[in-house]
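Extended Data, panel c. Modelled sequence:
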Amino acid sequence: MLTDTIIEDDRWQALGLAALAEAAAKATLARLALDAAEFEIALLATDDARITVLNADFRDKPQPTNVLSWPSDERGAEADGDAPELPDPDPDPELGDIAIAYDTCAREASEAGKPLSDHVTHLIVHGVLHLLGYDHVRDRDATLMESLEREILGNMGLPDPYREDDRV
């Protein structure tokens, strides 16, 4: 398995998060021609209370958020809009960790009129791209990352998550 899903909030069970996360992570790595069998990702499925603590500890933002990512290595591109250097699974196959909050994800999906599974799939793709060094702070980096998200989700048969400027 590419993803090791740790469920802290039982509400994630009904969504089938482990299978959904595995499919999203595999689709992301496949798009970038990376062999999913060679990598590992840890996913923490939690709630707003826990992600608020994590967001405060790691980003100095004591508020809930939908998803957080901790890459195992710095992989970002130097130039705005360039693709990051892809990881080598040898000697370390770990890409990093992702945490996702049920309350925020469910609220965002409801407000956008989207199925929760579609929104969460988008957020897992987004988180995996962060682990691979993609980001959305600079304009051209954001354009590149959003383009990849659209393509990966489209390949999975899901609609464009940015169709109504529904930003992550």
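Strands lie at 3-7, 40-46, 67-71, 94-101. This feature is highlighted in the accompanying rendering.
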